[in-house]
Every structure is written in C-alpha cells, then in structure tokens.
Amino acid sequence: MAKEITSRNENYSQWYNDIVIKAGLADYSAVRGCMIIKPYGYAVWEKIQAQLDRMFKETGHQNAYFPLFIPKSFFSREASHVEGFAKECAVVTHYRLKNDASGMGIVVDEDAKLEEELIVRPTSETIIWNTYKSWIQSYRDLPILINQWANVVRWEMRTRLFLRTTEFLWQEGHTAHATRQEAVEEAERMINVYAQFAREWMAMPVIMGRKSEAERFAGAVDTYSIEALMQDGKALQAGTSHFLGQNFAKAFDVKFLNSEGALDYVWATSWGVSTRLIGALIMAHSDDNGLVLPPKLAPTQVVFVPIYKSREELDRISSVVSQLRNELHAVGVTTHYDDRDNYKPGFKFAEYEMKGFPIRIAIGPKDLENGTVEVARRDTLQKQIVSSNSLGKFIIGLLDDIQNNLFSKALEFQRQNTTVVNSYDEFKSVIAGKGGFVLAHWDGTPETEAIIKDETKATIRCIPFDSKPEEGKCIVTGKPSMQRALFAQAY
Amino acid sequence: MAKEITSRNENYSQWYNDIVIKAGLADYSAVRGCMIIKPYGYAVWEKIQAQLDRMFKETGHQNAYFPLFIPKSFFSREASHVEGFAKECAVVTHYRLKNDASGMGIVVDEDAKLEEELIVRPTSETIIWNTYKSWIQSYRDLPILINQWANVVRWEMRTRLFLRTTEFLWQEGHTAHATRQEAVEEAERMINVYAQFAREWMAMPVIMGRKSEAERFAGAVDTYSIEALMQDGKALQAGTSHFLGQNFAKAFDVKFLNSEGALDYVWATSWGVSTRLIGALIMAHSDDNGLVLPPKLAPTQVVFVPIYKSREELDRISSVVSQLRNELHAVGVTTHYDDRDNYKPGFKFAEYEMKGFPIRIAIGPKDLENGTVEVARRDTLQKQIVSSNSLGKFIIGLLDDIQNNLFSKALEFQRQNTTVVNSYDEFKSVIAGKGGFVLAHWDGTPETEAIIKDETKATIRCIPFDSKPEEGKCIVTGKPSMQRALFAQAY
C-alpha cells in the first residue's frame, strides 16, 4: 500500500494529494473547487474543533450563528473590505427554478429574480456588524465575544484539497469592545490561542507576528498571523487575528454610550482558522509512508492487529485485546481492533501507516504465551516488544513521547530552514535554493515588498513579535530598517 | 419582565415570538427569512447536537461533509425529488462582482456567468449519491453510514423563527445498504433514535408512525416521522426518516457486486432533524412567564442569586456560593452566579424565569445563619427552603423531578388532546374546536386525504406504528379501513 504514494522528493505536491486521497481524508466533488471531507478527515476536524471550542469558551466566548447570505450592498460599506472580498464570490440572483418549456429538465425562473443579489458569505464582518448595531447601545452591552462555526465560499481560481477550496469550513470570532486597548488585547489573546493550539495540539511550531500593510486583512487596522513552515520549505499561514479598529463600526454606524456618557464608535476584532489546518497538519509531519498524526488530534490513537492462523488463536487473542482495550479506554486512550478476516496483517500494517494511527499493537500466539505485545510507533516506525502488564501507563507515556517528538522534529526543521540574510543576492539565492523562512531587513514600504514578491515570489509572512529591534539596511533599497521581517514563498 | 410577554390565551403566536426574542434565543436578520441564532439559542442547539451526535455514533455512524452547492442538473435525475425540492431554492448564477461603471457600489459581472447554475442545497441526497457512485463497487464497501451537520436553504414564503426559516441548521444522515431489509431496519432504527431523544432529552412525547403517500418525502418509498403536539393543539413534525428504496441508486447509477457476484442497485435511507426542534422545545413546555427548558437540554441548570445589602454581606454570600457551585460541578450540574450589582434580585428572578433556567437558588444573610438556601423550580414556580448540606444530591434529584414532571405534563396534555372520532361531523367539530390529535378511519386514498385537508386544514400526521389493526369505515367515503390514521392541523 505504501508503495502507492509518490515520494516527497519525486513530487511534493503529488505526495500531498496522494496522502489526502489514500488516507481517506477528502475527495474531489462534482462541484468545481469544492471538496468532500470524508469521515476520517472529518474526524480530525472534529478533534480540532473540540479543542479550539474549549479554548474559545475558556477565554469567555460564546457561539452563535449568522445568515449564510449577505446583501450585496453590505459589502460596499467598508471601502477596503469590498476590494478584498466582494469580487470572487458566489452570487445568488434567483430564488426559483421551473420546468423547462420542452419538459426536459429545469431552468431558472426569470420571474423569481431577487431585487438585491445575495452573496454567499466569504467572511461575516458585514452581516454581523449590521446586527451588532441593534444589540449595542451602551458600554453595559460590551464586550460582545462571539464565535461562529460555519462554511464560507470564496471563488478561488486554483484550488487544492484542504489548502484552498471554494467552500471551506472555519470558525470566525467577531468581538465588540468599548476601548481600543481592549480590542487590541483581544486580537493578541486570540493569536496566542491559535499559536498555543498549533504548538501543543498540532505539534506544529509557528512564528507569531504582525502582517505588513500589503498582506493585511481587507478592513483591518492590524492583522496578526501564525506562520508554519512546511517540509518543502514553503510557508503556510495557519491562522489570523485582526484588530479592526472602528472601521466596521463606522461602516455600519455602531455607536455606544460610553461610561462618561459620550457617544463613541465601537472597537472590533475578528479572527479565524479553517479546514486549511488539516492541510498544514498533513504537511507538517507526514512521510513517504503516508499520514503522520500527532496523538492529541488522531481520531484513533492505538490500533490492535491480531496475528493468527486458526479461529481458535483469533478467539484467544480477541479476548486479551478486549481486556487491553478496556484498560486503555479507562485512561482515556482511543483504540480500534481490526479483526477483519479477509485482509492479511501486512496489508493492515500498511493501511494504518497510511492513515497515521500513532501506535499499532500486534499480538500473536507467542505474545499470548509470553504476556507481551509488539508496539510500533508511527513517527519513527520503531517496534518494540512490551509486557502487556500495565500497558495503559506505557501507552500514555509513548503517546506523550510521540507528540513531543513530532514537535521537536518540526521545530528542528524550522530552525534549520530559517536563514538570516544581509544582502538581496543572498536572499534570492536562499529563496531559490533551500527555501524556508528568511529573515531580512526591509525598509517598511509596500513598494519594496512588491519588488521582492515580483522577483522572488517570496512575501513577508509577518514581522515576528519576538524579534529584537536591530538596526540595519533594507536588502533592496539600503534604506534604514529597525527590525527584520520574515519572508518566504507561501501557500 | 414577565409582564412584557403576551399570554398564550391572548395570542399564542405572539407569545411564541415574544419568548424567542425576549429569552434571547434568536433574532431577525437583514436577509429575508433568515434568522440569527443568538448565543443562548445556540447553546441549546449545542446541547441538542452533542446528544444526537452521541446517539448517531453509538449506532455506528460517522460524520462527513459534502458541498453546499449542487449542480442544477442533479435535481432532474430523480423525478419526484425535483418536484419536491428544486423549485423554491437559492440559485447561484454568477461568481464575480465588479465595480459599477458609475463608481457607486458593485454589480454582478455578467462575464462571470456559470455554465450550469448551482443550487444551494435544500437537502443533499443528489450530491451524496453522485459521490457514493465512486465509493461503492462491492458489498464489501457497504454499509455506508454517514451523517452530516450542515446548513440548508429552502426559499420559504412564510417564515417563523426556528419553525420555518429560509436557512436552517440540521443534520442529515445518508446511508447505503446491500439489502432492502437492512435499509428498512436502518430507517426504523433512526426514527426510534429521534423518538428516544424527543422523549428522554426534550421531555416531549411524540407519536411515531408512517407518512401517507401525499406527505412522503420527495423521492422516498416510505417516510417515518415523529409528531409532537404543541400547546395550541397543533401538531409539529419533529423529525423524519426515509426508506429511499433504490430510487437514488437508480437515478445516479450506483450499483454494487453483491455476495453472490451479481450486480444490483444499492438501497438507501436518509433522516434528519433541524433547528426546528428548538421551536418544538419552546412550545412544548413554556408558560406565560417565559421559556421552560428541560434540565437535560438547559445550557445552565442552576443560577445562584445573592440577596444582600452591604458589600460585606455579598462577600460572605459569594464565598458560600463558590463552595456550593464546586459541589454541584463535581456532580455534573452546570451553574451560573449572577452577582451583578446594578440589577435587583427581582429583576434577576424575572430574567431567569424568562430564560427558563430549571433551578434558581437565592441566598441571603438569614440563609447564611441557618445554613440554608431558597430553591425555586422553574416548571412549577414552587419555592422551598433547603439545607445547604449535601445540596448536590438534592439538586440532582430535583433536576430529575423537573425533567420527569415536564414529560408527564406534556404526555397528559397529549392524552387529553387526542380524540378518537367515528364520523366526519365529529372530526370537523373537534378540529375546529379543541384541536389536537384526532384518530379516525380513512380509506387510504390521496383523494380523501385531500378533501379532508381542503375542508378542515387537518392533514394526516402519520399512521402510528403502535396503533392496533381495527376494522372500520372511512369517515368521509364510508369505504373500509383497517387502521386509524392520526390527523391534526400542523405547523
């Protein structure tokens, strides 16, 4: 089975697609650019959702749901937002079909044309701020800390499973605050939540920072992002959090009476991550044998495979497995027992490697005699014979090891592929060669950023929060710079 | 606060809307027929989702996600399905907007017209069966037991919050089977899951049965439903499960090699419940003081309200409440402590009555002296003084009582409002008078059903599974009937 996927060296992009399809994560659909998230891929999304939802609630947020459709005119209200979002989108123009005059099929009923077209939401700032207008009168109504889990549509020209699809699933937080400072703190808090989730749950190191003006969200005063490095040396933006200032409050006329009795516009943030995270997760850890999942997000952490010749052997193994599974469930480990009789163990081994189950446990007749099991870990592919006494404790420790090892490996990769450069020649040579993150001085202008992008396809991923002020000269213009920006070619 | 809502007697329909708005469950939106589910309403939906999802998984189902858009031509494939679903729907015809020539706003870009229009899914049988075609080759690929949590759009002319909205949230199960019997069993299993959920979690008695041909799902061979009786004597269909036969397999050419090596069409079911359940929940139990929620679905089960005059009193109360809340959390009870200083206890009491918190606990200085609390239950509005020792055990018992009491009350109401009639005059007088469920003999023809509907607005809700065979004569035509059907005016 493992032979069926393209290796990373041969064709990285094909390797990625092979894993998505062969691990059963997603499938292409009959609708251009839209994907089908298959049960195994959706189970990963459910794990992601559950943990993020917990973190959002722990930071005081509540979920709600706003309409899928947004009146076209709403987009025109915020000048930069319309440029960024209202262009490539799905437009609903009619609300009825009718039988074709020929009787062969159905056609759009021209009598059922909408007075104002509806846009399938590409993001919900406009409809939400139009609603907040009626919810907010005084500072007592603030803050509003709402999140929504939803589908959104952006009519992308080039799509890739999970990474860029016309329809995708995401969460979008939309908060309203009485002061600028509170809103800035909220935007910072949520990018930190995303970074913590990426590191601790996805085992994926990320660089947190501020976007340049050119890369900012349409309508934001400031955009923060987390940026991850993939195995092909390209960066992937994994989550963003926006300080929106009073832009949407002004566009939708949302004022409140502050504690001093004066009218002021409300301050806003929005923040989101999407099913794109699954693409990041795949590319961060997987290998030429298939998917590798961190234990904390694996739908099933341990699979048991029986090795047997007779029905009687299988029965004895099954009885031991049943006890071991109970023991694991009691300590919170999820398991699966694959006793399918029409597949050989080797086939099953390859299948669970492809699907990235963190631990595989094989049990044969000799193991029964010796009171042992054979434990194989997916990340290193190492096997060891382990006593089946107190297996729970051993597995808990091993899952921790795997989670930590995946993070360390990815962090080491990121370190090795982050280069500090001091000239444009060096910059170009790194970007064209080993790739990865490049830290370089930049004069802070969109013009210089555009030149670099044109000439190297590298963009500013962010200006890292944790980079120290450092005087230097822009690699392109030689003008003074106070800090290095993080560049990379990106997904 | 309670004074603000219309009483049921005065105007039942207005009472319902008042509760939805004033309990903070939902709000109207800027988009015709689409609602905003507010945090408190969405929290109820999350409780509903969590339990149903558990029940679906316990019965072997997995979640997945299919595209929002369906190519128009897919609807024409199944003859009766197109009649039922492809008419009143949202049609996407374009994928781009552009700046107006005048520079004032944005318009649809006529150059970006889709070759084939896309329909925003009103239900997903067509796109899912088009996909199953590539997933199913042999009996080894069966059964497929998939559920999807999603939004759907049906362009309804008359909408009501939760009960009938243009966009709504739901789950739709879509299963594929090797035999007719297996599919029938699945459809029956899922209507039973819905009935169990309605009774045990919503505390709402339902009648389970088979739909008449006229009321069947478009494309189904058989539709099963659960029907609940609302306080105004009207019925509400709360969930449906469909045995689809081989209709969709034939429409999308989904064949499989069965265990005998012969090609056959795959057998199908689909089943769904929606945010309409929240409408049912509101109408099943609420009263003229506001919402009443069964403890198992209440986002918060117990609210603590301090009664105090001084800051010092409040501090002492808060410290006791903190201990009591910990005790309740330890036994799985959800709580809230409302120590807002700018609202009086009476205002808070009315607010939590409006929002249907099952239990309210008030604590004042005297309670501190006596080691007691005042416990008020929302269903009966009764209050009692209770020792704060081992409060956890008491509250657990009381929540059970409330859950059971709500179900018994609703069941008693249903019994009192179910009438067996033997003549059409009697039928008409009951429907026009007390309303409710009416059990009557019917000759089994759509023609007679249509006459009854025209003349009385009553429809056949279902032919109950548990009704005994009983010879009789159709109340309209006098033709022989073997079983009574359940009639009612319905939402």
The level 1 CATH classification of the largest domain in chain A is Alpha Beta
- Quaternary organisation of the protein chains: homodimer
Based on Cα principal axes, name the global outline of chain A.
globular
Care to count the β-strands of chain A? 26
Give the termini separation of chain A. Answer: 29 Å
Give the strand order of the largest sheet of chain A, numbering strands 1, 2, ... along the chain: 3-8-9-15-12-11-10-23-26-22-21
* Main sheet specs of chain A: 11 strands, mixed
Number of domains of chain A: 3
- Percent of residues in beta strands of chain A: 25-35%
Could you give me the name of the CATH homologous superfamily of the largest domain in chain A?
Bira Bifunctional Protein, Domain 2
Largest interface, C-beta within 8 A: A-B, 63 and 63 residues
**How many whole angstroms does the radius of gyration of chain A measure?**
26 Å
Which spans of chain A have pLDDT < 50 for at least 5 consecutive residues?
A: none
CATH topology of the largest domain in chain A: BirA Bifunctional Protein, domain 2
Mean pLDDT score of chain A: 96
